[in-house]
Amino acid sequence: MPDDAEIAAEALVRKVTADQDDPAFLRLLGEASPGSELRLALEAVREQVGRRGRPDDDTLRRLVNALRLHFSWETLPLRSYRVKLRRPGHEPSEEGEEQDAVATPESGRPEQVTSPPPATGTPPYTGDSDTVDWMGPGPEEHADRRRRPKRRPTGSARRLFPERKPRPEHGDSAATDRFLIAHLPGRAPQSAEVSLVVRISERPSGWAAASARLARLSVTAEGAKVSILVQCSPGLAPIGSLEQVLSVPGRGDSEPVRFAFHARSPGLHRVRVMAFAGGTFLTELELEVSVEPGGPAVEGEPVVATLDKLRSRPGEVTLQVRSDGERTVFQLLSDSYLFEPVLAQASAGDPAVAVERTLDTLKQLAAGRGAYSPATAARWLQETGIGLWEQVVPGLIKEQFWQLRDQISSFTIATSHDVVPWELLYPLRPGSDHGFLVEQFPVLRRVFGQQRCHRISISPCTYVLSGRSPANARQEIDALSAVLGAAGVVDELDALLDLLASGRCGPLHFACHNSFSPQAGSAIEMNGGPFVPALLNSATVRNSLAAQSPLVFLNACRTAGSVPEYTRMVGWAQQFMAAGAGAFVGTLWPVRSDSAGAFAELFYGFLQAGEPLGRATLLARQTVVREQPDPTWLAYTVYGDPHARTH
């Protein structure tokens, strides 16, 4: 049977479908805190109803989970806010009455609660729609927590949610909600030992005063293994390993694991906790501790993050790249091996110097002005990719890659300010030549702080033009509109910022010029001023794009400046993903306009055909390389979950 949250969600959806300004819906929307999961879920439901007539299944589940979470912290139980479904023409059961057993407060023994018969003179039910009443908290429910008698509806009406199956017994595959919970002191004295305690729980209550939304997990009766990886600020010196494995039982909570640090310098220090099932990223969270000379030790609030499906995807590999400005640490994660971190030695080379040497030739090839013939240009690209692989990747990481290579189904690079153009690398060893890294399997990136997003929206799309757009920008928009539809064209900066702040921003496709300078950074010149990543700061705080999880495609056909341009997309990707985008696509160097349009059209087409994000990227690259002699197919970098699909 559906629970209170599912019944309430059904009624809310029906009410807002009938009237987007329904008072009951707006009342609950007003009660939800700005930026809360309930507020975001309600706004997403309302927006999708207005746009397509009904919300999708993921949004419905999100609303159910948000209702459960919201009312778990209210003094009033969710049951007092649940919905009573009434249909005209309700008939009692064959026995004449429907009964529920509830425990009486006095005896604790069940008593029979009898449903009253329907009122006489009620017209028969003749339609498929429900008449739904939103029942607010009645005084009798405050006084008595008994379950209200239920009526069994007649007629044919499709449920928004399937009836829930009984919870599996212990020993069967258990599906339950899980949370990654971490606790770190809020303040600590300098030179003290600081403990980070991490565990996985079925309930956030008891450990946390606030919680993320629920998610459905699948853990077998034998349990599951989750790798916990921790990163810390330089002011915290790790005592022991920063990687531990949590054993999650089929039922109940895991045993906690402890990470210890020496608080060696004062200041505010951050700690990031990441969870992986094999090479599959699950979730992450961030904590802070303030270290003060002679200061007190003060407990901090626990932090809770939602765990995604607690199982690894076969062949999914993640390469983590972390840098503190002085050194770079690489680590490969897979469902087969958890390799130790590898510190990049000086012999690995400076990637900035190595890549800068290739930029001029890449620009010339993209512009069709290179000194090489198409065949020689292809050879130059290959030799450049091999050189970068040899120069910037530590030897031990290469060995681990070849150990995993035949098992890899997707390859994700998790990094923040990474300067390595992974899309250009060409792994090679004697007897093993499989082409560029991006030719072999889906290669995507993930910035730290980016949560998994299984569903992304790509239509209807809003198209953004820069002040001086590429020559074929309108042609590109016309071609994509035939595939994605058009929500509008924006070329004014204020209009774009208003859309981003509205909470209703859908997919964005930029057909533009993106300039870069060491002083001003990355910028898109628009009517009204330059659009720069810093103008997304409020959107990242409010998570303004999360309701739609849109794809943001920055198809920059030309750039200006002579600095390391391959790093210019990092700021855009971090900001858009932090604002809640489901995926981000950009170029690492200038690309030819016609090739850029061809790649975009192919990429969107594969997504609409049902391909996941990673495979759509791979297929678009493979198709373009066969048809275009320039290096455009290598220029695109994609951020997101390789298994994400469109709504």
UniProtKB/TrEMBL annotation:
Domain of life: Bacteria
UniProt feature, compositional bias: Basic and acidic residues: 160-172
Residue ranges of the region described as Disordered: 87-173
UniProt-listed Pfam families: CHAT
Residue intervals of the CHAT domain: 473-640
Protein name (database record): CHAT domain-containing protein
Organism the protein comes from: Amycolatopsis rifamycinica
Taxonomic lineage: Bacteria, Bacillati, Actinomycetota, Actinomycetes, Pseudonocardiales
